[in-house]
Amino acid sequence: xxxxxxxxxxxxxxSGKLEIVTCFSRSEEKRNAFAKKYGCRSSPSFDSILKDxxxxxxxxxxxxxxxxxxxxxxxxxxxxxxxxxxxxxxIADARAITAACRKAGVVLSVGYQRRRESAFRWxxxxxxxxxxxxxxxxxxxxxxxxxxxxxLGSWRYQASGMPGxxxxxxxxxxxxxxxxxxxxxxxxSARLAQLVLPGDNPDxxxxxxxxxxxxxxxxxxxxxxxxxxxxxNIYGKEASAYYDLxxxxxLVKRGVPGIEPVPCAKNDAIVExxxxxxxxxxxxxxxxxxxxxxxxxxxxxxxxxLSAKEGRRVTVAEVLx
Length: 321
Fold this sequence. Notes:
10 helices, 2 domains, Dihydrodipicolinate Reductase, domain 2, globular, 37% helix, three-stranded parallel beta sheet, Rossmann fold
């Protein structure tokens, strides 16, 4: 019952289309507190949840390196699984998770809520409508302030639990958005640095991504910045979009003077991904982020980690081989 469990549980309550039946954590104190907060039962073991016929699906918020064991067990028990990103720390585990769910015939949905944000959905629609023309470039930044907030006992801030540090923990959100908007990534050149935060993991990452369509994009991710900020700029031959956390979305078109603000109502992206999971579990369309797509997303980050380690351009195909 980590902090993200509460984020997802709060979203379930906002939705009303899913019901929290029971919960388990190795800490009895944590699971009892969670059960009290969300009005569900506290289970004495994960196995007892898997044997519970009243449970249709598992919201899995275990550490990355426990994803395979816990998800495979859920699949064998016939439970659908919502697994927060990344799907795993390694490609081998990601493939094994995907195969286990496919073999059992259960839904696997991986949480990537950033791509669902209304600004990015709007940009995707304009790209599909041809407004941008040929996509040529993109630049992005995902930065947070973690100074003084790092728990070195947490797996999230250890190289063994979160390979690549900030690149895998939050950078993967925006490599995913870049793939969603610009197209699949085929190669990565990356650098990592540890500049401010304690521990053994990078707090700054910079990546150059080569997309299948020939476009280039950049991602900068940081845990060492003075404040939280998100930037996503998409450049096309006929139009460009500029998004940042503080100014919202703006559009400029070739031959049209000035820059046009684009109003985008804030949507509840986490509720949307959980409701999609529920619909898929009830026999609806497959989730947007399946095991296969989440494995491809992980491969971009693994290519970045290898690139930074060896100081060379690394293809995604090499990582997937």
